[in-house]
Amino acid sequence: MTGPADMGLGNWIDPCRTALLIVDMQADFASPNGALGRAGVDISATSAALDAAGRLASAARAAGAALVFVALRTAPDSDSAAWAERLRRRGQGELGGGLCRAGEAGAAFVGPVPDADDLIVAKTRYSGFFGTDLDAQLRRRGIDTLVICGLTTECCVDSTVRDAFQLDYHLFLVGDACAAYEADLHRAALRALEINCAILVTTDQIVAAWGGGDLG
Fold first, then answer.
1. Backbone angle region of 115, left / alpha / beta, with phi > 0 → left and psi within -120 to 50 → alpha
2. Which of 100, 155, 156, 178 is catalytic?
3. Which residue in 61, 77, 98, 195 is deepest, having the highest Cβ count within 10 Å?
4. Span of 52-61, 95-104, 180-189 with lowest mean pLDDT
5. Phi-psi category of 210—alpha, beta or left, where left has phi over 0 and alpha has psi -120 to 50?
6. What CATH number did the domain enclosing 55 receive?
7. Which range of residues forms the domain containing residue 145?
8. Which of 28, 100, 118, 123 is catalytic?
9. Which pTM was predicted?
10. Whether the bond into 203 is cis, omega within 30 of 0
């Protein structure tokens, strides 16, 4: 079966026009001491994704591709009233309102962390494009292609990928560098995005392509 690497993946993700977009790899979502870990959510699936994202970041830097870290950063005045009411109606309390508070430990990056030259985009909703200047920043850099990974597959990754697709970016979703807290949600989200928005790839494929052998 022909895969992306056999079809010129290196040319498709030329570092001159491509950014690695890392979504919400933050303590509240992936650290045992973060909000979800303390709440008893099984975050074990995030560990492999963090490691894979670290490999992607190293490969992107070596190849000269741009790195973009998208991070949830909330404050009381940015909290969603609709989110809070939805939780209240479901009897789930107020957990969502306090995630990734700006300036607090829960908002810190885990796994790969930004270098001084990397772009950091703060958001207050699921999508990295909603209410941010991410699209403008990418266009300014001449970027039309995104390699995307992050947390969680069915939520903020999904929302970001769909918005990027509707903005006409070429998208490569790195399945093993994404994670969800439930395996079936992860698989279903990847499948839906593969059908509708992105080419599904692996970390090994991206690292090989950015290693130079497929760029000539």
1. beta
2. 156
3. 61
4. 95-104
5. alpha
6. 3.40.50.850
7. 4-210
8. 123
9. 0.92
10. no
CA angle 123, 69, 107 (to 5 degrees): 60
Residue 77 bears catalytic tag? no
Q: How confident is the model at residue 12 (pLDDT cuts 50, 70, 90)?
A: very high
DSSP code of residue 67: E
Is it the case that residue 136 has pLDDT exceeding 70?
yes
CA separation for the pair 151, 86 (Å, rounded): 21
Told to judge if 123 belongs to the known catalytic residues of this protein, a careful annotator would answer yes
Task: Write the DSSP assignment of 14-44 as a string of letters.
Answer: -TTTEEEEEE--BHHHH-TTSHHHHTT---T
Structural domains in the chain (count) = 1
Which tokens in the block code for residue 74?
């909330």
Catalytic-residue membership of 24: yes
- Model pLDDT, residue 6: 52
